[in-house]
Amino acid sequence: MKRRPRLYFSFRSPYSWLAVHRLRAEVPDLFEQVDWFPYWDPDEKTNAALAERGAELHYVQMSRAKHRYLLVDTKRLAQRAGLPMAWPIDVDPWWDLPHLAWLLARRAGRAVPFYDALVAARWERGEDICTPEVVARAAAEAGVDPVAAQSAPQDETLRAEGVDCLAAAYDDDIFGIPYLRFGRHRFWGLDRVDHFLAAWRPESTPTADPSPAVPAAVLAGAAFDTDTAGGCG
């Protein structure tokens, strides 16, 4: 039996936001059909626990030039998708907070509304989702305990679950976000979403933003591991 698709996503990445939007347009129940793994730059505590597992992040921080490109590229792609966007300013971000809070929401059966609340706060209103205040507001909007959400990093069981997610990313050779795995197939970046859909659901026809025909090498399991637009950390 083939393993369910895995989606590695990050609240930090604009391409992750856009890729999930694209996927949900084709698969409305994506959260039920795919295994979701949050991926982020861990703080010292999570990083130490990850090192104890013999794992690390394959991701390398992007250059200033690439970051400037992302600003323009993401705005262009959001406009094409008809999505409002306000570029957030990250000042000393603590990415463990929103990602561990999302794991808490998933435990409570509120993964979808909390995901939507966080991405709306970050990408539509430009808010700093690495602050307890914004996380608490998003939690309240999603029907999640706001106090528990903003204190998620203090929950050792959530920390351990987060380490499991990052260790899985290490084992799956994840080097950038968004990243999709389906069996032996690997797809990195927003511009590979339709290729993933063609491999996962070849009988379905995309309803928007069609891509060229998928090369045979892709369906045979070849990886796209070049540094192209559509993927970041």
Please list the strands of the largest sheet in the order they lie side by side. 2-1-3-4
Strand content: 5-15%
Outline type: globular
Work out the radius of gyration: 17 Å
Helix content: 40-55%
| Averaged pLDDT | 87
Structural class: alpha+beta
Number of helices: 11
| Strand runs, count | 4
| Unreliable spans | 209-229
Distance between the termini: 31 Å
Order of H and E elements = EHHEHHHHHHHEEHH
Give structural notes.
The protein has 233 residues and is α+β, with helices and mostly antiparallel strands. It has helices at residues 14-26, 30-33, 44-52, 64-80, 96-107, 111-124, 132-142, 146-150, 156-171, 193-200, 216-219; strands spanning 6-9, 35-38, 179-182, 185-188. The protein has a 4-stranded mixed β-sheet, sandwiched between helices. Helix 5 (96-107) packs antiparallel against helix 6 (111-124). The radius of gyration is 17 Å and the shape is globular. The chain starts with 5 loop residues before the first strand and ends in a 14-residue tail after the last helix. The relative contact order is 0.19.
Concise overview:
The chain has 233 residues and is α+β, with helices and mostly antiparallel strands.
Jot down its keywords.
alpha+beta; 233 residues
